[in-house]
Each structure stands twice: as C-alpha cells, then as structure tokens.
User: Which sequence fits this backbone?
C-alpha cells in the first residue's frame, strides 16, 4: 500500500543573476497550485559592480554574471553608507560552483603571497 505523509516541507536556494521577483512569482504560483505556501527567507537583486574597473589596477579581472553574498556584509557596521567589495581569489570563476570546480595547486601557492600584499 502507498503511504502518504500528512505534511512535507522543502528548502530551496536560488542564486539568480537577474531580478528575483519573476522567480519568486513563478515559484509561488507553482506552489499555490499544490496548496503549498512559500516563505521567503532572504533575497537580493543583482549587485552592480561597475566601480571595480576604476578601483582596481594592476590585476587581471572580469565582471561575471554570478550572484554574490556581498549584500549581506555590513562593511560599515551600520555607520554610514554601505561599503564596496571586490571578490578576489585564484582559480577560475567560470569553474566555481560547477561539477568541474577545482583550483590548481600552483594557484594556491601564489594565492598565499597575493593575500599578503
């Protein structure tokens, strides 16, 4: 015989590169069709980082279409306007959070001296 649980829950995480409202609306619509509700824990829109090209010189860099945790950091401890951040590290951002995610050992060795600069 089949057993049906009296209730169920799921936690979902979407890391988006565009405005989150359309995804929120779509997930809510799908869930409501099954009589389920949606509780939104946290959301952030894309983070404009055009300032990086003016702030960073002497390093190779690129802006990519990935989301970031930057909006959740309080750089100024609530005192003044939000700070600006740069995501920095060795390896390739195009490999991050993929099935091929890795970092080359030589990159790790170079990383140690770069963080000391």
Assistant:
């Amino acid at each position: 015989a089949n057993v049906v649980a009296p209730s169920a829950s799921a936690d979902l995480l979407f890391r988006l590169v565009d405005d989150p409202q359309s995804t929120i609306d779509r997930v809510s619509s799908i869930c409501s069709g099954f009589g389920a509700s949606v509780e939104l824990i946290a959301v952030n829109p894309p983070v404009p980082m055009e300032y990086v090209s003016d702030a960073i010189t002497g390093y190779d860099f690129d802006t990519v279409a990935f989301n970031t945790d930057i909006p959740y950091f309080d750089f100024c401890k609530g005192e003044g306007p939000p700070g600006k951040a740069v995501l920095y590290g060795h390896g390739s951002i195009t490999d991050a959070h993929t099935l091929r995610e890795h970092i080359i050992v030589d990159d790790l060795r170079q990383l140690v001296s770069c963080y000391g600069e």
Notes: DSSP finds three helices and no strands in the chain. The longest helix spans residues 21-32. The two ends are 66 Å apart (CA to CA).
